[in-house]
Amino acid sequence: MSDRGSGSATRRWETDQVFAVAFLGLGAVVLPIVGPLIGVALVWASPRWTRRDKAVALIGGLVVPMVAVVVFLAMFSGENFALGRALVGPSAVTR
After folding, report:
1. Which of 67, 45, 43, 65 is nearest to 55 (CA)?
2. How far apart, in Å, are the Cα atoms of 89 and each of 42, 63, 73, 82?
3. Under a CB-based contact definition with an 8 Å cutoff, are residues 20 and 45 in contact?
4. What's the rounded Cα separation, in Å, for the pair 62 and 34?
5. What is the DSSP string of 2-71?
6. Is residue 38 a contact partner of residue 23, using CB atoms and an 8 Å limit?
């Protein structure tokens, strides 16, 4: 978060900002779908985050994990698991 417009070099984080960062980071592990959504919603609802901060939170909190899930599903779906077998080896993919 930037300090644009404030007179002090450091600024105390408010509770909603702490929760937003926590849900963006840990929410993906603890609450895989809901956590990042809550984090992004908290970031976008706060007037203290800049547009750039909000865009980074949206991309890092939602877009990157969604792309990772799509890639994972593409690797290990289909009848032969071809991409997954090519990347991690046949023994890790076979049943």
Report:
1. 43
2. 41, 28, 16, 10
3. no
4. 10
5. --TT-SSSS-PPPHHHHHHHHHHHTHHHHSTTHHHHHHHHHHHH-TTS-HHHHHHHHIIIIIHHHHHHHH
6. yes
Distance set, CA 55 to CA 15, 31, 49, 58, 61 (Å): 21, 21, 10, 5, 10
Q: Would you put residue 50 in left (φ > 0), alpha (ψ -120 to 50) or beta?
A: beta
- Measured between alpha carbons, how far is 46 from 54 in angstroms, rounded to an integer? 9
pLDDT by residue (tens digit) across 53-69? 999 888 888 888 788 77
Q: pLDDT tens for residues 12-65?
A: 778 888 888 888 888 777 787 788 888 889 899 988 889 999 998 888 888 887
The pTM is what?
0.58
* C-alpha torsion angle, residues 35, 25, 48, 67 (rounded to 10): -80
